[in-house]
Amino acid sequence: MGSAEETRADELSDMSVALGKCVAARDVILLTGATTGSVYAAGKTAREAGTVHIGISPAHDATEHLERYGLPIDACDAIIYTGFGLKGRNVVLVRSCDIVLIFGGGMGSLNEFTIAYDEGKIIGCLTGTGGVADEIARLVEVVKKKSKARVLYNHDPTQLLDACLAVFA
Fold it and tell me: CATH for 6-168?
C-alpha cells in the first residue's frame, strides 16, 4: 500500500524497486490495488522477478479500470475487479492480505492502514518514504485505539519484510 501519485513514484523510485525485489526474493504472493505510482513500480518489479502479482481493482471490469480510473493492467498476473470503487476496493485488498506493507502514501493509504489496524493485521511501515508511512507511529500513539494489529517500522525493505514474516510465522 502506498502512493499512487506519479510524482511520488519518481521520489520513491529506488525504494519501490528495492521493495519489489525484496518481495520477489521470498515465497509470497503480492496483492496491490492494481494502481499507478510507487505501488505500480514495486508490483511490476516483483512480477518481473517472478512473484505472482494480483491486483485488486476498484472497477467492475477492465474497460472501467482503464478508462474511468486510468489504471494500468500490465503489472499484474491477474486482476480482480471488485466494482466497489476505491474505498470498497481497499477493504477487499486489506482483508485479502496477511501482511500489509505501507510506504509513502496519502489518504488512500491512510484508509488502508485504518482498515488493517481495525482488522488486527501485521502492518509494516517503510519509514523514510514520507507520507502516511512516516506518520503512523504518531497516529497510533495519538488515537490510542485498542487493536490486535502488530505494527512494525523499519527504513530497510528487507529488514521490514523479514520482521513482518517472522511475526506471521
Answer: 3.40.50.450
